[in-house]
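Human: We require from you a protein record containing the residue sequence and its fold in token form, and nothing else.

Assistant:
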Amino acid sequence: MRKYRDMSREELLIEKASLEKQFEAFKARRLKLDMSRGKPSRAQLELSNGMMNVLNSDAYFNDETGTDCRNYGILTGIPEAKRLMGQMSEVDPDSIIICGNSSLNVMFDTIAHSFSHGVCGSKPWGKVDHPKWLCPVPGYDRHFKITEAFGFDMINIPMTPDGPDMDMVEEYVNNDSSVKGIWCVPKYSNPQGYCYSDETVRRFANLKPAARGFRIYWDNAYSIHHLYEEEEDQVQILEILEECRKAGNPDIVYKFISTSKVTFPGSGIASIATSKANLEDIKKYMSVQTIGHDKLNQLRHVRFFGNFANMEEHMMRHAAILRPKFELVESALQREIGGLEIGTWTCPKGGYFISFDSLDGCAKRIVAKAA
């Protein structure tokens, strides 16, 4: 396949006419495709249908301590849910709080509290002139919507295959006290599918923030979302809480996770894992905000999976549905434009995203044609 840059004007015009004819043929099919990013298919949702049968009117509704999950109480989550989500998060159950159905909601609440009351006694972010937030780009648009809603000056940090540009991160965090946090999707990132290298994780753990109350918002949304069963094809990253403890910075990170793309999106369970000092700070406002989250949903998840090994097996059933789709897209891109030097794309081994980078100035027109 000849590169476009090696073609004459006449050859390019012939190629353009051929491609426009193909494009019109696709349009004539009047396809109605849901192109929403990161949205599980119906087949994936049906993998968890059995969870709806776990609890019924004859079920035993008590957790392992004997607490009736239909009633008030247990602010930080039932013990068996903390163990399950702790294993998913690679942390001790004592380092985690089980929340509601959405990790995004937990992130919003955490920033809202920091804005109004500060972090572990620090000055409330809302009283800081022009607070800043670091945003690795490209990144998750809903993350950016949160910090935009609170009026942060958002600073773009370029992404690399190993994670954010850490020279820029260190320069901002270590020298500018108005920088209050950074968004991170460290594994199979949205939208590129990149995974943070060991060096990147350690450099995060060894940050020396100029701002008291600076926090890394570590959204580990795709921690167990591998596409392949073989261990050598599953990317593993260093556990950030442990690295922060080793570096003498136990308090600088919040780690978020949920089962939204494990069971039912919007009906899963979310959690936050962090240091003891941060947990105590969070519990102070959480105890005012709620008497306890949905323990029946926690119980439902625990009884459906039984243990973390079963959850991992469940994720391989997701992979069996997703993997052929990834491979189909990758093979089509390679077949159709692989030798043309008109774009590049990522080939991740997990998550939900393949990212395509076009030539400069083409992206908006490509999206418009797909609309």
Summary: The radius of gyration is 23 Å. The beta strands are 96-98, 132-137, 153-160, 163-164, 179-184, 215-219, 253-258, 270-273, 343-345, 356-358. The longest helix spans residues 308-337.
